[in-house]
Design goal:
- 10% of the residues lie in helices and 43% in strands.
- It has a 4-stranded antiparallel beta sheet with strand order 1-6-3-4, with no helix packed on it.
């Protein structure tokens, strides 16, 4: 998805005032929340993420990873999604995935120029600035298995005992 351009598209206006939709803000925040039912067992959860040009993923207030697009490209130059295992960060109840994404490049603060602003990140100084056509891609899935209620287990056990007692003895 392209970065959101704000109410009325104001964040994606060109220097002439035209709403292009091609260049949003240089820093954005995305969030997604979902609920895991009590008693459920999280068997696995993965996300595939591409962030142009930098992102940090936080799940339930824990930093999971940060990545720079330039370090995740296929030989043909196209982005290669970073696959992230999320299972250890999820729990029963509400879960929140949050992403901070920035447009620019990862360099030392002395190398930021041309209108770029130095922004601190977990990976070091990032030169935040408009390189055009920002985007964020996130896809994922989780396998959650509900655990059987204890009353159901007790009922199945009692049924099994009852069936065993009804069988005639064998000689």
């Amino acid at each position: 998805m392209m970065w959101y351009c704000g109410t009325g598209g104001d964040a994606c206006r060109s220097q002439t005032g035209e709403i292009t939709g091609a260049s949003g803000p240089t820093e954005v925040f995305f969030g997604y929340s979902f609920y895991v039912k009590p008693g459920a067992s999280i068997r696995g959860a993965r996300a595939a993420i591409i962030g142009d040009d930098f992102f940090t993923l936080v799940v339930n207030s824990q930093r999971v990873t940060s990545a720079v697009l330039d370090e995740h490209k296929r030989p043909d130059g196209q982005p290669d999604p970073l696959i992230v295992d999320l299972a250890a960060y999820l729990h029963e109840g509400w879960n929140v995935l949050a992403i901070r994404a920035m447009d620019g490049y990862l360099k030392g603060p002395e190398e930021c120029g041309g209108g770029y602003i130095t922004a601190p990140t977990a990976m070091g100084a990032f030169c935040k600035g408009d390189r055009g056509n920002e985007y964020m891609f996130v896809s994922g899935s989780a396998m959650v298995v509900p655990e059987p209620a204890s009353i159901s287990l007790a009922a199945i056990g009692l049924l099994g005992v009852g069936l065993l007692r009804r069988r005639p003895p064998t000689a």
